[in-house]
Amino acid sequence: MGFSEADFKTFISGGVAGMCSKTTVAPLDRMKILFQAHNIHYKNLGVWSGLKTIVQKESFWALYKGNGAQMIRIFPYAATQFTAFDLYKTSFGRVLGTDTILGSFAVKFGAGACAGVTAVTLTYPLDTIRTRLAFQVTGEHVYTGIMDAAQTIFRTEGGLLALYRGFIPTVCGIFPYAGSSFYCFETLKNLCIQYLPQYSCEQYGENGALVLRFYAKLLCGGLAGAVAQTVAYPLDVTRRRMQLAMMNPETAKFGRGMLATLKLTYNENGVVRGLYRGMSINYYRACPMVAVSFSTYELTQQFLGVAPKS
């Protein structure tokens, strides 16, 4: 099966959606990383006081530290994820069917989960680099940029495997996260089209197919993001801590594996201040991020003339 024009447009739409969504929440993303890893300069601050302190101590543009690496990563990541989701959903649908509630759940959740795993496997080293750059504080830089970080990690920390540190908890986390987000968005979208078309939908194209209005896309995406992040957050904390292992003496203790990092995080800080550390900021960032991602994806598809899918 070849890569059709529609697949190419889906790929582009996914990449644009990822870049827009991540840039929208980049300052909150950096703050989340600083919170999760208990950076000594910010660990006792709140979300908004932390953002204010970044601007005061570093600069406004420091809010976007690491976003260059994020953009290089997120275009192929999001493009692959959305394209793979459509392909997996079609394949799973043929095998499992979507006529029953269980079948529909298995197809949408499974396709989203597999798409997330596929995308993260291809782009994970760039996420590690981006995390390292975002964790740096002005005046205490370990790396000068993307290439320097990649070369230093590769040369001094064990080659390619060092760039994949934290990969196992990432896969364990992305499976329920991507599965939940795609399933929730698709389900909410279908419910709006089926039961609330007069309030949430508009006609698109020559055949008059119903698509969600912009505000409905944002609402469905935001709710999907909130559900998905709640399910997968402890493993996101574990991933971040493992990615930062070996960067300095304070973070070196998190280089012993997923279960050891989970246990150490729980023993040192408990559930709320450990496994769910930074969760409040994650809701601030996850809801608009997923909302912008799904909305931009569908709007870009409409702009490129891709027919909406149920």
Automatic annotation (TrEMBL):
<dbReference type="GO" id="GO:0055085">
    <property type="term" value="P:transmembrane transport"/>
</dbReference>
<keyword id="KW-0812">Transmembrane</keyword>
<comment type="similarity">
    <text>Belongs to the mitochondrial carrier (TC 2.A.29) family.</text>
</comment>
<dbReference type="InterPro" id="IPR023395">
    <property type="entry name" value="MCP_dom_sf"/>
</dbReference>
<dbReference type="Pfam" id="PF00153">
    <property type="entry name" value="Mito_carr"/>
</dbReference>
<dbReference type="InterPro" id="IPR018108">
    <property type="entry name" value="MCP_transmembrane"/>
</dbReference>
<protein>
    <recommendedName>
        <fullName>Graves disease carrier protein</fullName>
    </recommendedName>
</protein>
<feature type="repeat" description="Solcar">
    <location>
        <begin position="212"/>
        <end position="303"/>
    </location>
</feature>
<feature type="repeat" description="Solcar">
    <location>
        <begin position="103"/>
        <end position="191"/>
    </location>
</feature>
<keyword id="KW-0813">Transport</keyword>
<keyword id="KW-0677">Repeat</keyword>
<keyword id="KW-0496">Mitochondrion</keyword>
<keyword id="KW-0999">Mitochondrion inner membrane</keyword>
<dbReference type="InterPro" id="IPR002067">
    <property type="entry name" value="MCP"/>
</dbReference>
<dbReference type="GO" id="GO:0005743">
    <property type="term" value="C:mitochondrial inner membrane"/>
</dbReference>
<keyword id="KW-0472">Membrane</keyword>
<dbReference type="InterPro" id="IPR002167">
    <property type="entry name" value="GDC-like"/>
</dbReference>
<feature type="repeat" description="Solcar">
    <location>
        <begin position="5"/>
        <end position="91"/>
    </location>
</feature>
